[in-house]
Amino acid sequence: MNDDAERRKHWLVRRDTIRKIWIGGYALLALTVLAQFLFPVHGHFGIDDSFGFAAWYGFGTCVAMIIGAKLLGFILKRPDDYYDR
Predict the structure, then answer these.
(1) Which range of residues forms the domain containing residue 5?
(2) Per UniProt, which keywords does this protein have (predicted)?
């Protein structure tokens, strides 16, 4: 694809913008995990005292929600002609 066609695209769909957003997301994630060195966390349950707890717990919860949604989709899925019958 030539440069002119790339410039006419919406700014959120351009390749360089997408790459910058990913880099910014990784940088923000790293900064929030490293901020725990400056602001120590005092957990209530023992496991939440571990380093980077919010990051790995949030990631694990997100994965669990995606898997749960996929399983729920298989259970609730209807044939394409369900309403035509």
Answers:
(1) 1-40
(2) Membrane, Transmembrane, Transmembrane helix
